[in-house]
Design goal:
CATH architecture of the largest domain: Alpha-Beta Barrel
Strand content: 5-15%
Number of helices: 16
CATH superfamily of the largest domain: Aldolase class I
Distance between the termini: 20 Å
Largest sheet: 8 strands, parallel, barrel
Length: 354
């Protein structure tokens, strides 16, 4: 069966060869991984939340120097400098803007007016309905199996629910790593799948080898959900550090959070007032204490310790449950080719009606 059989509303919308997305993972989805994903025919998404504005512009230009294929940039819609980051995306001619939280109607309109495809990530049907009504071009739906901040509804329940609720392309995320999963998502009505952990575990990923080894050694039971990092459900590998964070008292956790907040402020280039504004945006609509808001600074710094510095003893490792079934480190080109080959094979073996 040819790849024409796997052309979807998503591939047509974005202009990529395959209905696959490499998600925007902080400290992981940099220019090397994004360009490798794009050159393999998937949509690579550059993670910008851990970059300054100047670093973002430089990273976008580096990706453009490495590939002529479409790619995207992921950003936080609630960040104080979100509009400045949108301007970088527009000025640099980036094809896709993806969002970890629902962007405002005005932000969507600004991007669409500039010809940028807007693809927010959501974890509930009502959020998909909202962004679709505001003009989003497509939506990534992450079920509870996904890594990082996640919900408690399984992808197999959430994905078809959202497909039935909106008229824009829906991309499934959470639990996908091979061609069988892609075919299953297409059967549910999705236009493709997004994968984070699977692309993290490639040879093109800059994550240190010792950290990749921890992922490869994990079983499905070694991946847990905890609120100890920043007060919100976060799926990651179960480690001694995660256990210690869960045992830490409120005062000790708060002191650690203040220290890490200062470190993140220096790395991100954000001022204290900007970080306070971001905290207010994060608190809005959620039952979070101010100590939990401050704990949010734990996330980028603890992730950096592992994903950049290789310190699995001092950092956390965001992970989808699929880490427990991944056993190798292919290149992005090998991974994408394998997924598509498996998908074609599965489609070819399905019984036909009649």
């Amino acid at each position: 069966m040819s790849d024409a059989a796997l052309e979807t509303a998503f591939t047509k919308l974005v202009g990529v060869r395959h209905p696959l997305i490499q998600t925007g993972m902080g400290w992981v989805a940099g220019p090397r991984l994004v360009s490798a994903s794009a050159n393999a025919g998937a949509l690579g998404i550059l993670a910008s939340a851990t970059m300054t504005l100047d670093q973002l512009r430089s990273a976008v230009r580096e990706v453009k120097s490495r590939t002529d294929e479409p790619f995207g940039v992921n950003l936080r819609a609630d960040a104080g400098d979100a509009r400045d980051r949108v301007r970088v995306i527009i000025d640099e001619g980036v094809r896709v803007a993806s969002f970890a939280l629902a962007p405002s109607r005005d932000l969507i309109a600004e991007l669409k007016d500039a010809g940028v495809v807007v693809i927010p990530s959501i974890g509930a049907r009502r959020h998909a309905e909202k962004v679709a009504a505001w003009g989003a071009d497509a939506v990534i739906v992450q079920g509870g199996e996904g890594g990082g901040h996640t919900g408690d509804v399984a992808t197999t329940v959430l994905l078809p629910q959202v497909v039935d609720a909106v008229d824009i392309p829906v991309i499934g995320a959470g639990g996908f790593h091979d061609g069988r999963g892609l075919v299953a998502a297409l059967a549910y009505g999705a236009a493709g799948v997004a994968m984070g952990t699977r692309f993290l575990l490639t040879s093109d990923s800059t994550v240190p080898d010792a950290v990749k080894a921890r992922y490869l050694a994990a079983t499905v039971k070694d991946v847990t959900v905890t609120t100890a990092v920043d007060g919100l459900p976060h799926r990651m590998l179960r480690t001694d550090l995660v256990d210690s964070l869960e045992r830490a008292g409120r005062t000790r956790a708060l002191v650690q959070a203040v220290r890490r907040a200062a470190g993140f402020r220096k790395l991100s280039g954000l001022s204290w007032p900007q970080m306070v504004r971001d905290g207010l945006a994060m608190k809005h609509g959620k039952e979070l204490s101010w100590s939990q808001v401050l704990l949010a600074a734990n996330t980028p710094m603890l992730l950096r310790a592992s994903m950049v510095e290789g310190r699995t003893d001092l950092g956390v490792m965001a992970s989808g449950q699929v880490a427990g079934v991944i056993e190798d480190l292919p290149t992005c080109e090998e991974l994408v080719a394998r997924v598509m080959s498996e998908a074609r094979h599965v489609l070819g073996t399905l019984p036909t009606p009649g």
